[in-house]
Design brief:
Oligomer: heterotrimer
Strand content of chain B: 15-25%
Chains: A alpha/beta (55), B alpha/beta (90), C alpha/beta (100)
Strand order of the largest sheet of chain A: 2-1-3
Helix content of chain A: 25-40%
Number of helices of chain B: 3
Strand content of chain A: 25-35%
Number of domains of chain B: 1
Number of strands of chain A: 3
Number of domains of chain A: 1
Largest sheet of chain B: 5 strands, parallel
Chain lengths: 55, 90, 100
């Protein structure tokens, strides 16, 4: 499963644990909106991901 | 077809819980996860959680001091999140 | 794809507009619902202007806006002054959801 995390802040301990768990059997991608302003690419990632987790 | 939605309640508990109750209005399946802290004992929070229980919504928490909510570890919650069409951390 | 954007802060206007326009340019539909601090963006012309774009539908939580004293008198009627019902509708209809 492809999981996209869209970050608006530094990941906290809870999100780190969630990502670690997801990494075990999924393909994860992390986009930090504070740095990444390539909205075209982000929309493509949203479209192609099975799950989107904004944080 | 009903969507399955997971609402994650973080620091803005009042609005998150209000939204979670509202999300039921289209007859979708809404599960709620209270993360990392005790539910603040306000009139609105109490009412919203009572409403969720009346509607037989599932309300989980990774914070053991939240009495009356079903405890799951953060790792268990991570796995459950993959069941949802939408994951809404508030 | 129908993209739902729940706008619950007023901190990410650039990201809201950027992602909305990028999604539209790829032929997607975008639904925006503002609540909580997100309703403060109703006082920002660049947020309001999104309703003019083909493929965008917008609504907001009147309860939030009133509670925060947000000025909504000038908000175009195409931006629905609504409730959590509108948010539930967005979640129900959206293929993907993000929160900004």
């Amino acid at each position: 499963m492809k999981i996209l995390y869209i970050l608006k802040q530094d990941p906290d301990e809870t999100l780190n644990k969630i990502m670690e768990e997801h990494k075990k059997s999924n393909e994860i991608t992390v986009v930090d909106l504070r740095e990444n302003k390539n909205y075209d690419h982000i929309v493509d990632l949203i479209t192609s991901s099975d799950k989107v987790i904004p944080w | 077809m009903a969507k399955k939605i997971g609402v994650l309640v973080r620091d803005r508990q009042g609005e998150a819980l209000r939204m979670a109750v509202g999300e039921t209005l289209m007859d979708d399946i809404i599960d709620v996860y209270v993360l990392d802290r005790k539910v603040e004992e306000t009139e609105d929070n109490t009412l919203n959680i009572e409403t969720m229980k009346d509607m037989e919504m599932k309300v989980y928490t990774n914070y053991k001091e939240n009495e009356g909510l079903e405890y799951l570890s953060t790792e268990e919650i991570a796995l459950k999140l993959l069941e949802y069409d939408h994951i809404l951390p508030y | 794809m129908k993209l739902g954007i729940l706008v619950n802060t007023d901190k990410h206007l650039e990201e809201v507009t950027g992602l909305t326009k990028a999604a539209l340019s790829k032929g997607h539909e975008v639904m925006l619902f503002a609540m909580d601090d997100g309703t403060r963006l109703l006082e920002k012309p660049s947020y309001i202007d999104l309703h003019n774009l083909q493929g965008v539908t917008m609504s907001f939580c009147d309860h939030s806006a009133k509670g925060l004293g947000v000025k909504t008198e000038g908000v175009p009627e195409e931006i629905v002054c609504g409730s959590q019902y509108n948010n539930a509708g967005m979640s129900h209809d959206a293929d993907k959801m993000i929160i900004l």
